[in-house]
Amino acid sequence: MLIGIGRPTARLPDRGRNHTIAIHRRFAGPRGARLVWCALWLAGSGCTSLREIPRGEYGVQAERRDVRLVTREGLKYEFDSMRIEGDTLIGFRRRDVEGSIEEYGSVHVALDDVGVLEARRVDWLRTGLIGAGAAAVVVAAGVIRNRRNDQAPETSGGGKPPIP
Prior knowledge:
By secondary structure, the chain is an alpha+beta fold. The chain has three helices and six strands.
C-alpha cells in the first residue's frame, strides 16, 4: 500500500475531527457568555479613578495603595503605598532593579506640607455604565442572530440528498 501525502489510505470515517469538534463545543460555552465575561473583566479592571481624600481621613486606614500626593509647593509624587506615622506621611515606590528581590524607595513628607492626597478607587458608576453597555451589545447581537435564523430557509440539515 502506498501512502501519499494528503491522500487517505483507507475510507474510514474521520472520527478524530468529529471528536475534536464535540470536545470544543462542550468546553467552549456559548459565544455570548464569553463576551459577557470578557466585558465584565475589562470593566472591573479598567474603571478606576483618583479620588481626593479629605484631610481628616488621612490616618483612618493604616495603609493605602495607589496614592498620588501633591505638596503645597506643587511637587507631585505617585506612591505604590503610603502610611501615616505621627505627623509624617511616608510614601513607598517600587524601584526598577534587576534581581529577584523587590526594592522600595521611601519619601517622608510632613502632613502640613500636603496639598492634595488622592487614592485610586473603583468608579462604580463608570463600571456600571460600561457593564450595561456590554450587556446591551450582547442582547442586541442575540436578537439579530435569532432574526437571521428565523429568516433562513428550512433545510434537511445534512446538505446531501437522501439515500434511496
